[in-house]
Amino acid sequence: MRAETSANDKISVALIGCHGMGWYNLTDFLKVPETECIALCDVDQGVLNDKATQLQKLTGKKVSLFSDYRKVLDDRNIDAVIIGTPDHWHCLMTVDACSAGKDVYVEKPLANSIGECDAMLSAARRHSRVVQVGQQQRSGQHWQDAIATVKSGKLGTIRKVKTWGYFGYGSAQPRVPDSGVPAGVDYDMWLGPAPSRPFNKNRFHGSWRFFWDQGGGLLTDWGVHLLDIPLLAMGVTVPRSITSSGGIYSYPNNAIETADTQAVTYDFGNFLLEWDHAGGISRGQYGRHYGIAFIGNNGTLVINREGWEILPEMDNDKPRMEALPLQPPDKADHEKHVANFIDCVKTRKQPICDVEFGRNSAVLAHMGNVAYRTGNKLYWNEQSRNFGPDEKANALLKPSYRAPWKFPG
Ligand SMILES: NC(=O)c1ccc[n+]([C@@H]2O[C@H](COP(=O)([O-])OP(=O)(O)OC[C@H]3O[C@@H](n4cnc5c(N)ncnc54)[C@H](O)[C@@H]3O)[C@@H](O)[C@H]2O)c1
H or E segment at 224? Predict the structure, then answer.
C-alpha cells in the first residue's frame, strides 16, 4: 500500500484472475465511488483482453495488463488486490500480496487445504493487512436478522443444524480427451504450485472445482458459504469429531474426482452440524435446492439467499412459537461486502469476513473432505492444528508445491 494513502485518497485496486467471479467482484468494486481499477492480470490472454475492453467501456480508461501476478505486486500504486483465481492459487497470491504491503479481497474458499488457510492467516497478521474473504452472505441484512433470531434462543434448544446444496452443475461434464493448450494461455502459470497435468478443458475454467488439485467439489464451493452461517450463529469454530461418506454415484463417467454425492456430520458436543450435497439434481430439503435449517425444540428456522422463515413445532394445534412467513432476502449483500472491504482498507478496521472467519469455514469444509477421502472418523487437535495421531488424515493437511513454487514459510 502507498505510504501516503489518506482517508480521502482513491483506493487503487488490481484484479488477478478475471474470468468469472473475479470480474463480478470488480463490477461491484467500481460502484464504490472512491475505488479505481488500475490493472488486470490473467494467464489467459483471451480473457485478459476481453475484460480490458469491457472495463474500458465501463470506465473510459485503459489499465495496465499483466500475466504474472508478481508484477502486479511490484506496482507501488496498487493498494489492494482482488483474487479471483481457482482455489489452489489463493494461498501463494494472498501471502505474497500481504508481504508486498497490499490489502486483499480473496475469493472463497480461503484456500484449497487446511495448512494453506493457516499460512494465509499468519501472513495477514504478520503484515497487518486487511483481508476480506468473499463470503458475502455475512453482509446481507436478512442473514444478520436470522442469525440474531438464532442467538436470541427463541427456537429453543438447537440440537441439529442442516446445511445442503443440490446443484445441477455439481455432477460435472462428460469426459473429453486431453488436448493442446489453447492459444494465449500460460498453462504452466495456471497450474502454478499444483501438480503438472496434460491440458484438459474439463479441468480448466470453471470446472477445475471438481478436481482435488484445484478444488474440493460442492463442499468447498458452496459449503463454505453455508457452513459459515452456523459457525457465526452457534458461536463455535471447531467440531469434536467429523465423519463423512459418499462417492461418485450419479454420473460415474463424468470428469469428476470429488464426490457428487456426499454427507458430512460435524459433532460439536451439544449439537450436530450436517452437510449434504448432490450434484446433477436440484430438489433439496424444505423445498429449497440449497439452504440451512436451524432445528430447535420450538421451531425450525430455514434460510437461503431467497429469504428466511420460521416453521413452529406444534403441540396438537398449538404452536410452540410464532410462525414467521417468508421474509424477503437482501440482494445487495455482495455490494455491501465489497464496500465494507474498501471502508476497512481506509479505516484499518477488521472486515466483516476477516481472514480468520474465512479460515474457519474453509477448514470445516476441508475437514469434511479429509474425512471423506480417508474414510476415518476424525478428531481435530486445535493445539497442534492437525488430526492428532491420524497420519492418513494429516497427510492431506497441505499439498506439496510443484517447483519452483514453495509453500509459504
Ligand atoms: N463468492 C462467491 O459467491 C463465488 C462465486 C463463484 C466463484 N467464487 C470463487 O471465485 C474463484 C474463481 O472462480 P471462477 O468460477 O470465477 O473460476 P474461473 O476458472 O472461471 O476463473 C478463474 C480465472 O483465474 C485465471 N487464473 C488462473 N491462474 C491464474 C494466475 N496464476 N494468474 C492470473 N490469473 C489466473 C484464469 O485464467 C481464469 O480467468 C474461486 O475461488 C471460486 O470458488 C466465489
Answer: helix 223-234
Q: Bridge-partner residues for 314, per DSSP?
A: 319
pTM assigned to the model = 0.97
Name the helix (H) or strand (E) containing 359.
Answer: helix 355-374
Residue with cell 485503459: 62
Q: Is residue 87 lining ligand 1, measured as CB closer than 6 Å?
A: yes
Q: Which residue's CA lies nearest to atom 7 of ligand 1?
A: 21
Nearest 10 degrees: CA dihedral of 376, 373, 371, 175?
-150
- 20 in ligand 1 pocket by Cβ < 6 Å? yes
Give exposure, 15-50, as e/b (b: 16+ Cβ within 10 Å): bbbbbebbbebbebbbebeebbbbbbbbbbeebbee
Whole-angstrom Cα Rg for the chain: 21
Q: Please report, for residues 138, 145, 148, 345, the alpha-carbon distance to residue 327 in angstroms, rounded to integers and kept in the order given.
A: 17, 10, 14, 33
| Atom of ligand 1 at shortest range from CA of 204 | 19
In angstroms, the CA 313 to CA 114 distance is: 39
CA distance 121 to 137: 21
Rounded to whole angstroms, how far apart are CA atoms 3 and 128?
14
Ligand 1 neighbour 134 (Cβ under 6 A): yes
Provide the b/e sequence for 229-247 (b: ≥16 CB within 10 Å). Answer: bbbbbbebbbbeebbbebe
The residue contributing the CA closest to ligand 1 atom 15 is 206
pLDDT in tens, 385-401: 999 999 999 999 999 99
- Give the model confidence (pLDDT) of 340-359 as tens digits: 999 999 999 999 999 999 99
Q: Which helix (H) or strand (E) holds 391?
A: helix 391-394
* Statement: residue 211 has pLDDT above 70: yes
68-106: burial string, b at 16+ Cβ within 10 Å, e else: ebeebbebeebbbbbbbbbbbbbbbbbbbbbebbbbbbb
Q: Is 351 in the pocket of ligand 1 (CB under 6 A)?
A: no
Whole-number Å distance, alpha carbon 114 to ligand 1 midpoint, is: 19
Query: Does the CB atom of residue 206 touch ligand 1 within 6 A?
Result: yes
